[in-house]
Amino acid sequence: MSMSVNRPFRLVLLLNAALIPALLLVYQLAVRPALHGVGPLDVHATIAENGGFQPGSIQVQVGQKLTLRFSSTDLPHGIAIGPGLGADLGPVIPGKIKEVTLTFDRPGRYTYYCNTWCSPNHWRMRGVIEVTDPANPVPVTETDPVIAALVAEGVDIDAVHNTTAAAPHGHAEEMAVSAQRGAALVNTLIIPPELRDINWRRSHTPAQGVALLAAQNSAAQEADLQDVTAFLWTADAAPEALSAAALTYAKNCLACHGATGGGDGFMAGQTAQLPVAFSDTQHMFTMRADVLYAKIRRGGMGTDMPNWGLLFTPEETWALVDYIWSLALK
């Protein structure tokens, strides 16, 4: 009789011995971080020459709430956090504080940065949020497939292009190309299937597109072929994504590349190399979209072009590439 009573009792003890540590672990890893957030933490911004963001690095766990209070001690700084968070606090002026609370659902590195030009070293105005997952402490290194494909192909992302030699059909004169005219002409030409494929267009230049069109439309005027190519290179951009990209460009690219992409921004003379003029159609006809994408995400070696891959998602980067095409191929 005593054995029949003690056996269930021992079973309960064993279950408790296993269950209680498991529940404690769940509380420690999931419940507690969610209930007890980090912050509010004060982040002070000064121009990069005087230290930039302080602190410059913050650690938080997946599921934890992180509250940040941004302030400026010298001049207005535009504060945003990315990639993919949609957190743009706008200008933070001295004496004022702007607060934001974030919860990260996946581990990784996020960046808070200034998107209002504040000094010659403005691009260094960045701070890092390291988000870790205690349940999976080994970080996963993500490879950008577009950049990996370019490396495998042997493409030199930083190659200097000779636009005179590489212009469509060898023509060196200035090109007057119009995507709007191309839209009216596209149905009058035979369009090879490659040109309907966005992946093909992203990995080839408009000049190569003109050559394909010419092979199928031998009687067409070259100006018409160029216009239709311009239309095809800009047709996929969604208006809402293009509008968002225009704002991204204005806040982060305009200072060097200029408001209309002329390479004539107010900081253009301060860079190691003159910024690319996206409005130079002849040059842009020699460029590949995937190379533009890679340059944005990785930066340009020796050009003072910073990397933006820590700030923008791949989708935001492609939208920015589409906006650059719109500057080149109006």
Tell me about this structure.
The protein folds into two domains: 38-132, Cupredoxins -  blue copper proteins (Immunoglobulin-like); 145-328, no CATH class. It has 13 helices and nine strands. The strands form two sheets. The chain has a five-stranded mixed β-sheet with strand order 3-9-8-5-6, with no helix packed on it. A four-stranded mixed β-sheet has the order 2-1-4-7. Residues 1-5, 20-35 and 163-173 have low confidence and may be disordered. The chain is α+β, with helices and mostly antiparallel strands and 330 residues long.
Question: What's the structural blueprint in terms of helices and strands?
Answer:
Blueprint: H1 2-35, E1 38-45, E2 53-54, E3 57-61, E4 65-72, E5 77-82, E6 87-92, E7 97-103, E8 108-114, E9 126-132, H2 145-153, H3 163-166, H4 179-185, H5 193-196, H6 198-202, H7 206-216, H8 222-234, H9 239-252, H10 254-257, H11 281-284, H12 289-298, H13 314-328
Parallel strand pairs: 1-4, 3-9
Antiparallel strand pairs: 1-2, 4-7, 5-6, 5-8, 8-9
Helix pairs in contact: 4-8, 7-8, 9-13, 12-13
